[in-house]
Amino acid sequence: MTIEIMGTVYPARYTIHAENLIAQKIGGIENLEAAVEKDGSAGAIDIFAFMVAALIEGGVQHGKVESQLMGKDYLGPEPISYETITQLLQPGEIIDLKDTIMEAIREGNKTNIELKKTAKKKVHAVKVTTEWLKHTALKSGMTLAETLASTPGEIMDLSACEAIDNGAQQKIKMSFDDTLKVR
Prior knowledge:
Elements: E1 2-5, E2 8-11, H1 16-26, H2 32-69, H3 82-88, H4 91-96, H5 98-109, E3 114-115, H6 130-139, H7 144-148, H8 152-165, E4 170-171, H9 176-181
Antiparallel strand pairs: 1-2, 3-4
Helix pairs in contact: 1-2, 6-8
């Protein structure tokens, strides 16, 4: 996902790092609606501008880590600061980015692996926080840079793989066409 500002196309990604930045501003993504309502339209514009900067920083960081892992130089733009965004963009332009912000967050939280619920074992619920996501990624052997450049959904998939390795059952979704391909 990308965001264009003044002719420069920036990568935008809802990473663990971006989630940490947003949590520092509004206490967590789950508080977004309340924060916007509390602060009115000027506050909403400020929050959205901050989120754009956080998503761009997450996207750039992801690009740099990915390039490093592939042994290549990062060729993309450097992140643009919140202060610069608020100086360059008009309030309406920031509000117009709301759908892009929300899509980046949805995409970052998307998982690809789902586990079956079992009635056999007593399962305790875990509140998925940024700290839990970092713990899970680091425990699996990822570096801190790789962890912070990953999305919450990617870390959740990693956790699901670990659960499957420990005996959990994967829920497999297949279309009719997919079942015809299995032989």
